[in-house]
Amino acid sequence: MSDSGDVQRTDTSNTGRAAIGVTGLATMGRNLARNLARNGYTVALHNRTQARVDALVEEFGNEGDFIPTTSIEEFVASLERPRAIIIMVKAGAPTDAVIDELVPLLEEGDIVVDAGNAHFADTARREAALAQRGLNFVGTGVSGGEEGALHGPSIMPGGSEASYRKLGPIFERISAHVDGEPCCMHVGPGAAGHFVKMVHNGIEYADMQLIAEAYDLMREITGASPQQLADVFADWNTGELESFLIELTMQVLAHTDDETGRPFVDIVQDQAEQKGTGRWTVQSALDLGIPVTGIAEATFARSLSGHVEQRSLVRETFGAAVNPQELDAGEFMEDVRRALYASKIVAYAQGFDQIRAASAEYGWAIDLGRVASIWRGGCIIRAWFLNRIREAYDEQSELPTLLAAPYFADAIRESTDSWRRVVARAAAAGVPAPAFASSLAYFDALRRRHLPASLIQGLRDNFGAHTYRRTDRDGSFHTLWAEPSRREVAAGD
């Protein structure tokens, strides 16, 4: 892929024009611009505040070829045609404002890339609006944080095939690489790129919540210190749980606050913030009819953590004591490890279910195996077992659920008893573990021969004549509940 990048990259030394432009030079935009320059591309720079352009050139101008500009007009004029412009500003109104500034200056065939965390519906709207003017709008997910942006992120572009012919070689070159493969692909048309990035972040919410619950359970129930638990996570990172987030967990738990000498995790407020992608994921899943219970619980857990007044009142009313448990600490920690792995599998399975449903709904034809592949490097949820997800979809592209793939089915079987013990132990101790519990409930619901939804359907028909379907014959029916005989009729009669 890098060879194709060399072929399509334009030598701008004679023309004085940049191959690509970046507007919005906060941390992510600045690092992405540096990444592009380090890989041999001449990069035009623009920012609403000129000081950021000047600072980038002064500090990192030796890393490659930059063209600093002082106005949006100069910025657009500095780009080779068809122009390719990356917008790296806050999602929502700020992105629209930049687009509104750019559009009058652009020409047919130019490409505008939104590489922020935009809602996919906004991306679809913007693409349709720019298409009317002959412009290409490409919603692009970029994951990896500031370090990924600089050294190689996972990149998820949507938009047209024509746009990807220009952008693809560039993005593939600057992305992370695993086993020689770029962590970048043309996800699909329209808003597919931003949708996949949204679900990526939803899975990230679930993954972090599960890790936090594992830490909390082990600390509260066994009394282990953060440093001791850092060693536990370090050990876990050598096996099937190996991942970027487990590595970061180890680092955070091992860190000591310089000012107080206390464990860092103890001086941080226990109120988790969010920027909206988890909430968007859950909202979209509801629209698509896909249960993403682990992601939903993780999102609600963050919300609950911020309700300080309610938490304080309930704590004063009922107390905060953890019920003591008699157990073998080592055995319990092993149970937690297995429960974490099983719950993590559920989170990814739900996320991929959502992507598959959206792909069908919007006609995106997303290759799920390749999505797993480009998440193996650069992104926040990169993990060893993404290789197994890719293999599962390579073997069966229409796999209804990852839980049924042989590798993951075996892992779930090996973990189920531990999973149940952990959830039961958490409930008995009074330690909240909503993501563990909901993941186990999801698994149990899928494997049940008969769910109580039959009673729900009966209730709905009784109070609202919503009808029901029978197990023994086709068609929809309604029972005349108000009649003494409670006679059944076919729907529509």
Task: Write a short abstract of this structure.
The protein contains 21 helices and twelve strands. With 493 residues, the chain is α/β, with parallel strands linked by helices. α1 (2-8) crosses α8 and α13 packs antiparallel against α14.
Molecular structure report:
Helix 9 packs across helix 13. This protein has 21 helices and 12 strands. The chain has about 500 residues and is an alpha/beta fold. The N terminus is likely disordered. About 55% of the residues lie in helices and about 10% in strands.
Furnish the topology, listing elements before pairings:
Blueprint: H1 2-8, E1 20-23, H2 27-38, E2 43-46, H3 50-60, E3 66-68, H4 72-77, E4 84-87, H5 93-102, E5 111-114, H6 120-131, E6 136-143, H7 145-151, E7 154-157, H8 161-174, E8 177-178, E9 181-182, H9 192-222, H10 226-236, H11 244-254, H12 264-267, H13 277-288, H14 293-305, H15 308-318, H16 329-362, H17 368-374, H18 386-395, H19 406-429, H20 434-447, H21 453-464, E10 468-469, E11 476-479, E12 488-490
Parallel strand pairs: 1-2, 1-4, 2-3, 4-5, 5-6
Antiparallel strand pairs: 6-7, 8-9, 10-11, 11-12
Helix pairs in contact: 1-8, 2-7, 9-13, 9-14, 9-16, 10-11, 13-14, 14-20, 16-19, 16-20, 17-18
